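Researcher: Checking consistency across runs. Here is DNA repair protein RecO again:
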Amino acid sequence: MARGSTFSARSFRDRAVVLRHYKLAEADRIVVLLTQAHGQVRAVAKGVRRTSSRFGAVLEPGMVIDAQFAKGRNLDTVTQAQIVEAYGAALSADYVRYSCAAVMVEVAEKLTRDDADSTHTQFTLLYGALNALANSQLHPFAVLDSYILRSLAVAGWAASFAECVRCGMPGPHRSVNVPLGGAVCPDCRPAGSRSPSPEVMDLLDALNTGEWERVQRADQATMRQAGEIVTQYVQWHLERSVKSLSVLDRAQEV
């Protein structure tokens, strides 16, 4: 069990990232959270929609919180919640960063819905990515795309852009096949593969491995083309739409 997490027969405490919420009855919400040690949790936040609620600004998507939960038959209940990292103000002040954060929490929700084995790593990746979005000088699209590739790898869909995904031949290669999961050599290249520039291929590899010095050398056009491939990759392997991607304007200057 992760440090800082406690457990009893009727309750547990854990650090969590709020992924989303939706209305329940007149004043309540169901909150979806990615916890550090207990996987994805769906819990009722009672009275949270009232102006007097002490949870009002705490249980918002993207917030990192320390929370106490009472276990229930179908849904748990949030009984206490304190902010650990309040990224909301920094992210909401910048449309691009806010949009990237929205994509991250949606991808995290879909990837962790039925996966309890990689909980701690997925939590750490999302926590770190949100922190980088809010506090660093890194390009927000680069933070997003690196997060997507690395979280998909943890979930079992690891991409490769440095060697052929079919035969393992070392690159650099000039073609990418999204369904196969990355770069393909000339002998293995299926019909319909994309042929990005060498700069895009290099950036994809750097995003995949978290090599930020290489990432920061990329220009806006290269970043946009790499992002289009990452978007196709996550949509293909999740086999469902990531709705927040529809409002992400990759052509916008940052």
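Researcher: Does this match what you'd expect to see?
Model: One thing to look at in this run: The longest strand covers residues 11-24.
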